[in-house]
Amino acid sequence: MYFVYILESQKDRSLYVGSTEDVKRRLVEHNSGKAKYSSSKRPYTLKWFCAFPNKIQALAFEKYLKQGSRFAFVRKHLL
């Protein structure tokens, strides 16, 4: 299984969207600073995640959520 997840920064309430095979491990990586892109806004809390049967579908949905106005969709329908 592959997962798409949304994290919220406790520092500034910004959202981070990602995908992984292990959501718990990935949250630990974000909060420990191992994920370089998101390290400046830690700590994070897990706000939402969804399972997909394969990596291709998970990556496609992650990409969809990261496009322009999709964050409005996230805030309205997923959070």
Key phrases:
79 residues; alpha+beta; 3-stranded antiparallel β-sheet; 39% helix; globular
Short description:
By secondary structure, the protein is of the alpha+beta class.
Description:
This protein is of the alpha+beta class. It has one domain (2-56, 64-78). The chain is 39% helix and 29% strand. The protein is built from three helices and three strands, in the order E-E-H-E-H-H. The protein has helices at 23-32, 55-66, 70-78; strands at residues 2-9, 15-20, 44-52. It has a three-stranded antiparallel sheet with strand order 2-1-3. A hairpin with a 5-residue loop joins strand 1 (2-9) and strand 2 (15-20). The protein is globular. The mean pLDDT is 92.
Q: Strand count, sense and closure of the main sheet?
A: 3 strands, antiparallel
The helix content is: 25-40%
Which spans have pLDDT < 50 for at least 5 consecutive residues?
A: none
Number of strands: 3
Domains, number: 1
From the helix content, strand content and strand pairing, which structural class follows?
A: alpha+beta
Task: List the topology elements.
Blueprint: E1 2-9, E2 15-20, H1 23-32, E3 44-52, H2 55-66, H3 70-78
Antiparallel strand pairs: 1-2, 1-3
